[in-house]
């Protein structure tokens, strides 16, 4: 049973369905660094202002006093990704929930990485946040819902399970999902 239902975490719903062309848009991707635990409250403000944003979340289930509790947490604590013009940014940056705004210089690479993370979130698979990722082999998924996705393959210490990670280079964090060894192929760099 969820403590609270999952709130809106993307606006508009088809944010990543559009083909991204950096040259024709005045809007740019930016990363808002929020105060601790203020990501969802800032997302509510963005929904009210009809500002395009992406706040990737995952569900965490825990048992408390013999009850299963489901809660929704940001995959990247302290960050929310917005797509807006500089004018819109002025209204957002002054909010009490934000600490700073980080400018993204490589817009197309950033969009590709966010789009891949969006696909992982949409899949409904069991995701887990990954802090600063260690180097691993680059692979491509060949079968299943993530077919064509590229990222790093890591092996978790202890359990030995294979995890496919997609990184968001700009904030040096990522997200991972468990994969089967037969569904991947190494990329030659």
Describe the overall structure.
With 189 residues, this protein is an alpha+beta fold. It has one domain: Alpha-Beta Plaits (2-Layer Sandwich). The chain is 18% helix and 37% strand. It is built from three helices and 13 strands, in the order E-E-H-E-E-E-E-H-E-H-E-E-E-E-E-E. It has helices at 39-48, 86-93, 107-122; strands at 10-11, 28-34, 52-54, 57-64, 67-74, 79-84, 98-103, 128-130, 137-141, 150-155, 162-168, 173-178, 184-186. A six-stranded antiparallel beta sheet has the order 8-12-11-10-9-13. Strand 9 and strand 10 (150-155) form a beta hairpin. The protein is globular, with a radius of gyration of 17 Å.
Domain module count:
1
Side-by-side strand order of the widest sheet: 8-12-11-10-9-13
| CATH level-two architecture | 2-Layer Sandwich
First-to-last CA distance = 45 Å
Question: Can you summarize the main beta sheet?
Answer: 6 strands, antiparallel
Order of helices and strands: EEHEEEEHEHEEEEEE
Find the count of extended strands (DSSP E, 2+ residues): 13
CATH class: Alpha Beta
- Residue-averaged pLDDT: 83
């Amino acid at each position: 049973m969820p403590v609270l239902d999952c709130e809106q975490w993307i606006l508009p719903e088809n944010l990543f369905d559009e083909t991204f062309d950096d040259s024709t848009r005045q809007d740019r991707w930016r990363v808002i660094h929020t105060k601790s635990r203020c990501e969802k409250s800032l997302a509510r403000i963005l929904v009210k202002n009809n500002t395009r944003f992406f706040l990737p979340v995952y569900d965490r289930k825990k048992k408390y006093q013999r009850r299963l509790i489901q809660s929704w947490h940001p995959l990247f604590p302290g960050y929310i990704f917005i797509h807006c013009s500089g004018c819109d940014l002025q209204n957002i940056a002054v909010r009490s929930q934000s600490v700073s705004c980080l400018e993204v210089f490589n817009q197309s690479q950033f969009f590709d990485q966010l789009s891949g993370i969006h696909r992982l979130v949409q899949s409904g698979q069991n995701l887990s946040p990954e802090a600063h990722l260690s180097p691993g082999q680059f692979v491509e998924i060949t079968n299943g819902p993530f077919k064509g996705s590229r990222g790093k393959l890591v092996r978790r210490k202890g359990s030995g399970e294979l995890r496919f990670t997609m990184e968001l280079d700009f904030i040096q964090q990522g997200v991972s999902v468990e994969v089967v060894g037969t569904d991947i192929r190494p990329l030659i760099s």
